[in-house]
């Protein structure tokens, strides 16, 4: 398992963090997600054999937020 922190722009409320948590958790290979509105990021534990950082960035963008 691998651990990463993804900075996310555009989150303004608890609904935003729920949306990001939902889309990241739905990715095959992601085992743990902790999204922080205060720190504007997501801590993700994932299996690099099953998913990539690019895939995570894509679903975050698709949910209406910006990785950065």
TrEMBL record:
SUPFAM superfamilies: HMA, heavy metal-associated domain. It comes from the Bacteria. The lineage of its organism: Bacteria, Pseudomonadati, Pseudomonadota, Betaproteobacteria, Nitrosomonadales. One of its GO terms (molecular function) is metal ion binding. Keywords: Metal-binding. This is HMA domain-containing protein. Pfam families: HMA. PANTHER family: P-TYPE CATION-TRANSPORTING ATPASE. It comes from Sulfuriferula nivalis. Residues 2-68 form the HMA domain.
């Amino acid at each position: 398992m691998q651990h990463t922190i993804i900075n996310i722009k555009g989150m303004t409320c608890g609904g935003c963090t729920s949306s990001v948590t939902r889309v990241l958790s739905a990715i095959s290979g992601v085992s743990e997600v902790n999204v922080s509105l205060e720190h504007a990021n997501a801590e993700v534990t994932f299996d690099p054999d099953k998913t990539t950082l690019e895939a995570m960035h894509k679903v975050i963008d698709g949910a209406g937020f910006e990785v950065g």
